[in-house]
Amino acid sequence: MTISRRKFLQVAGITTATLALNPVGKAGAQPAVVSDRGAAGNPEVKGMLIDITKCIGCGICSTACQEQNGLHSTQNEKLDDETWTVLKSVEVDIEGKKENRFVRHQCFHCLDPACASACLVGALEKTPEGAVIYDGDKCMGCRYCMIACPFGIPKYQWESPFPLVRKCIFCHERLKAGEAPACASVCPTQATLFGSREELVEEAIARIQSNPEKYVPHVYGLEEVGGTSIMYLSDVPFEDLGFPTDVGTRPLSEYTWMALSKVPAVVVGGALVLGAAYKLSKDRGEENEA
After folding, report:
1. What is the pTM of this model?
2. Phi and psi at residue 124, in whole multiples of 5°?
3. What per-residue confidence (pLDDT) applies to 74?
4. How far apart are CA 215 and CA 234, in angstroms?
5. Are 7 and 284 spatial neighbours (Cβ–Cβ below 8 Å)?
């Protein structure tokens, strides 16, 4: 495939037009591509409630994720481009006695995702069903999403000549078909519940109120970074399990707009033009491989 000067200028022209309509350097302006800020109040948004007190550490959730998404990981200890769900064993102190708790890690699917707000080309999107999904055809490889995520979730295909950003997509196709994510559907102890986020919040609060001696009086993900679709209950403090507890309750996308409003349009425009060059080069390489 030959990349003509005309085709390159067409792609670059789109980015220039985007900046013209939404000048980033102008105070208060926002990028053209924004996240679904209505998700927090949408009763149709799905979620998962993970009750750490019920998890037995079987790892079936991780295996189901691998099979559902065609992943080929050989480990289950940390998130990477081929591992989207991991189960970690954490030793905790319970009244002077050492015990283990099993903690699942995957994308939190924030209601107002920082990764989507940081993406200049709309490669990441919060869907009406609740999933934060990724379109590799739009990605320009800037990796701003990785920097923006407060939980360090998105991973990059460093070994690929045409790398993508990879993470849990909440089994989006299953959600659209009215089915539960693969991980939730195989949990043998119901440590993972799937349903509407509103109903799961009610269930989480009910469990805490009915068993105050059992649970920490906090639903992790209820308000963190403006709320997430994946929420947790625990009988030990979340900081003892490795959860970040300094992320605040304000959606991080609001800080994204504030930061981008201080960046000169020419800088962002240059990044987009370079991104266009990367995209065209990627397309050419993929066609040559075909």
Report:
1. 0.77
2. -110, 140
3. 79
4. 6
5. no
